[in-house]
Amino acid sequence: DQQVKQNSPSLSVQEGRISILNCDYTNSMFDYFLWYKKYPAEGPTFLISISSIKDKNEDGRFTVFLNKSAKHLSLHIVPSQPGDSAVYFCAASGTSYDKVIFGPGTSLSVIP
Amino acid sequence: DGGITQSPKYLFRKEGQNVTLSCEQNLNHDAMYWYRQDPGQGLRLIYYSQIVNDFQKGDIAEGYSVSREKKESFPLTVTSAQKNPTAFYLCASTIPTAAPEKLFFGSGTQLSVL
Prior knowledge:
Oligomer: heterodimer
Largest sheet of chain B: 7 strands, mixed
Order of helices and strands of chain A: EEEEEEEEEEE
Shape of chain B: globular
Radius of gyration of chain B: 13 Å
């Protein structure tokens, strides 16, 4: 059973508009949530993270929101740029050392 | 520059053959991981190692084997028992006590069956 879910396999957004990528999780023991960005034939790269004690973390054009009661987080990209076109993975882990669990990913296309 | 190097970038396996994927890191990270990526399934954990000479099975370890004789190296062998080996394989490393546990990934190896 998937502990980290990304229900939208793909998303298309016009350049300059907001991209919203969603992620749901089932394990209430997760303490950290991370977003990774992946281009084809390359390894994922870390984008942004959020601790479970926060509800928002911002880094430039990227903001992650966490709703613990709903077990839901989202990544907002504003404004979206063509270079943002990639697969975005949501991931989660616990405070003590544990494996990182990845969602299936959402493929974002930003249309010029 | 510090980083993770995976080789080869492309690999072909014949029926009944074992193949080994290389992963080397010079980040001085204790923990290393192997993930497999299939279309639409995200990243699934095969094996991970927190320290030299120790490793644990991930979610899909059957048909794979690993070794961790050196801190810098974590090779993955895809054995003939793995019946569906075609996938993109990713190696990653991290400092296990870091929070959040930010993984650093290599550029991957695409394995295909001839």
